[in-house]
C-alpha cells in the first residue's frame, strides 16, 4: 500500500491506511529496554517491577458516529467501550486488572445518558473483575469519545503475540464470523476465559482477536509470523445471514484467531468441544511458507481512514 | 453545589460541575481490594504484583477547542498531551514509566500535523524517560482528541495524596501562578524532579498539582484532608502580567501545591533555594481547623462543563 500524494503535496490521513499511519508514528516514539512486545501487537507487554509476571497495557476508544450511533443504547456503548480493550487481553492471553476511563462529551448531553453508559461500563468491568480506578472527563463540541485503558498481567511463560506462527500450523477461529454490525458488536464477550484455557493446556504459537475482519487481520498475523497463509473459504464459520465476503471483510467479530502445531489439532478440537460445548472452534486453514505467496488473496477488511 | 434540574426534568451535563459528575459516575464503577488510592485523587495508586513499589495509573486528554486551538503548533499540542498526566505523577510523587496514546482525528487532517504532534509527544516522553508502548487511532467527524495514559510506580512509603494535610500545616506553591493561557500551558514542565526531591527529604503531608486554578484546587485538597485553609492573597506568587484574581481562577498552572508541618518550613525553604535556585517556592498560607470555616472564600477556578 503506497500513500498517494494530493496535488498540493500534502498527504491527508485518509490517504494512508491505519497500519501505515501507526508504523509511521511509532517510529517517532521512545521505547525502552523493558518492553517485551510494544506497539503493533494487540496489547503492549512490559517487564513489571518484580516477580514472574509481566505487565500488560492496552488502550482503545469508541467514537460516536464511528463505533456507535447517536441513538445506540448508552448501556451498550459503555459495554463496548470496556470490552474492546479486554478483547486485546484475550488476544495475548492476559488477565485484566485495572481500568481507567476518559469521557469526552458535550455539556448538552443528558446526565441520564452518561449514567446509563457507565452502568454498561461497570457491568462489563465486573464480568472480568476489572477495578475501575480512575478517569477523566472533558467537554467537547463534537461527537462523544470514550477511551478506556486497561492494565493487567500475564505469566512470563504464557503470553502470546501475533508473531510465532510457523509454516504448517493449523489456523483456528472461535465462534462464527460476519454480520456483526446488526447487534453483536454491542454486546460481545471477549474470549478471555477461552484464551486463558488455551494457553494453560496447549502451545499456542500465535494469536490475535479479530477486530478489523479476517481479511485485514489474518495478513497481519501472517506478516508478524513471517509466513504465508491458506484459508479454505468454505470452512469459514458464518453467523446467521452472513456471506463469506461479509465474514471476511466485516470487522468487529472479537473472536480469536490462532495458530497451533498440526499435531495438536485433534486433541485441541476434542478438549474444546468438552470444555466449551456452546462455542464453536473451527479450523479454517493453515500457515504456509512465506515464499509461496498467499494462495488466496483476501479482500481487505475494514481499514480506518479509508 | 446542588444540581439544578431543567423544566423537563432532564439534567444536562453543563448543569453539574465536573467534581459532582465524577463522584456520581465513580459510585457506579467497581473498585477492588488492591486499590490504595482510587478515583478522586490526582492519580490512582494500586498494589502491584509484587515488591515494595505500588503501581500508579493516570489517564488524561486534550481536546481541540478546549485545551488547544486549531492553529496551535502541533508540537505544542503533543507536548501538552503527554505532560498533563505526567503532572499528576508529580502530584503523587511517582515515577512515570510507560505511556499509551489514543489519537482521535478526522481523515482530512494532514499527515504532517500528526507527525509534528507526535514529535512533541515524543520529546515530552523522552524528557521523563517514558516508554511509549502502544496506541490507537480512530477516525472522527469532530475535533481532535488525544488521550494519554501513563503507568509508573512509587515506593510504598513515599506516595502522597490530597488527603493527609493537618491543621496548622504550611501551604507552599512552586513557581508562579496566573496568566498561563498566553503560552505556558503549552510548554510547561511537570514538577516531577522537584516532587521526588521533596518526598526524599521531607515529610509532605498532602500534595496536588494545580490544573484548575488555586481557587478550585485548594478547596479540594482541604476537603480531602478534612481541614479548612487560610491563604494570604498578597503572598500568592504571580507570573508577569497576572493579577491575584487571575492567579486564583486561571487554571493550567501545573505547579505543585503542598502541605508540610510548620516546623519543617524553614529547613525546606533553605534547602529548596540551594537545590532549585531558578524555581521559586512560596508559603501562601496554612491549613486551618475545618470547623472555623474558610476565612477567605476563593472565587472558583475553572470548572469543566460550566
Tell me the greatest interface.
Answer: A-B, 87 and 87 residues
Strand count, sense and barrel status of the largest sheet of chain A are:
6 strands, mixed
Oligomer: homodimer
What number of domains of chain A? 2
What is the CATH topology of the largest domain in chain A? 60s Ribosomal Protein L30, Chain: A
Enumerate the spans of chain A where pLDDT stays under 50 for 5 or more consecutive residues: 1-7, 300-306
What do the pLDDT scores of chain A average to?
Answer: 86
* The CATH homology group name of the largest domain in chain A: PurM-like, N-terminal domain
Query: What is the helix/strand order of chain A?
Result: HEEEHEHEEEHHEHEHEHE
Helix fraction of chain A? Answer: 25-40%
How large is the radius of gyration of chain A? 19 Å
Beginning-to-end CA distance, first to last residue of chain A: 12 Å
In the sheet with the most strands of chain A, the strands line up as 1-2-3-6-4-5
Strand content of chain A: 15-25%
The total beta strand count of chain A reads 11
User: CATH top level of the largest domain in chain A?
Assistant: Alpha Beta
Give the class of chain A from helix and strand content and strand pairing.
Answer: alpha+beta
CATH hierarchy: architecture of the largest domain in chain A: 2-Layer Sandwich
Amino acid at each position: 500500500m503506497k500513500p498517494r500524494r494530493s496535488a498540493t503535496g500534502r498527504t491527508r490521513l485518509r490517504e494512508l491506511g491505519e497500519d501505515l499511519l501507526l508504523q509511521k508514528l511509532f517510529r517517532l516514539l521512545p521505547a525502552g529496554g523493558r518492553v517485551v512486545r510494544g506497539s503493533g501487537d494487540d496489547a503492549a507487554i512490559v517487564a513489571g517491577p518484580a516477580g514472574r509476571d509481566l505487565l500488560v497495557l492496552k488502550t482503545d476508544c469508541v467514537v460516536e458516529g464511528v463505533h456507535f450511533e447517536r441513538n445506540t443504547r448508552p448501556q451498550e456503548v459503555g459495554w463496548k467501550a470496556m470490552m474492546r480493550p479486554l478483547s486485546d487481553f484475550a488476544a495475548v492471553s492476559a488477565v485484566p486488572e485495572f481500568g481507567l476511563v476518559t469521557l469526552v462529551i458535550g455539556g448538552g448531553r443528558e446526565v441520564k445518558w452518561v449514567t446509563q453508559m457507565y452502568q454498561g461500563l461497570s457491568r462489563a468491568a465486573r464480568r472480568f473483575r476489572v477495578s475501575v480506578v480512575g478517569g477523566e472527563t472533558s467537554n467537547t463540541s463534537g461527537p462523544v469519545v470514550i477511551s478506556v485503558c486497561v492494565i493487567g498481567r500475564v505469566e512470563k511463560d504464557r503470553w502470546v503475540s501475533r508473531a510465532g506462527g510457523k509454516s504448517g500450523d493449523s489456523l483456528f477461529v472461535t465462534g462464527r464470523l460476519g454480520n456483526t454490525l446488526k447487534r453483536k458488536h454491542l454486546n460481545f464477550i471477549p474470549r478471555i476465559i477461552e484464551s486463558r484455557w488455551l494457553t494453560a493446556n496447549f502451545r499456542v504459537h500465535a494469536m490475535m482477536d479479530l477486530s478489523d475482519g479476517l481479511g485485514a487481520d489474518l495478513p497481519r498475523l501472517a506478516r508478524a509470523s513471517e509466513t504465508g497463509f491458506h484459508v479454505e473459504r468454505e470452512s469459514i464459520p458464518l453467523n446467521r445471514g452472513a456471506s463469506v465476503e461479509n465474514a471476511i471483510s466485516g470487522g468487529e467479530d472479537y473472536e480469536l484467531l490462532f495458530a497451533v502445531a498440526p499435531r495438536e489439532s485433534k486433541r485441541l478440537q476434542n478438549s474444546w468441544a468438552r470444555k466449551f460445548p456452546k462455542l464453536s472452534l473451527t479450523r479454517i486453514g493453515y500457515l504456509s511458507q512465506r515464499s509461496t505467496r498467499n494462495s488466496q488473496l483476501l479482500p481487505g477488511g475494514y481499514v480506518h481512514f479509508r
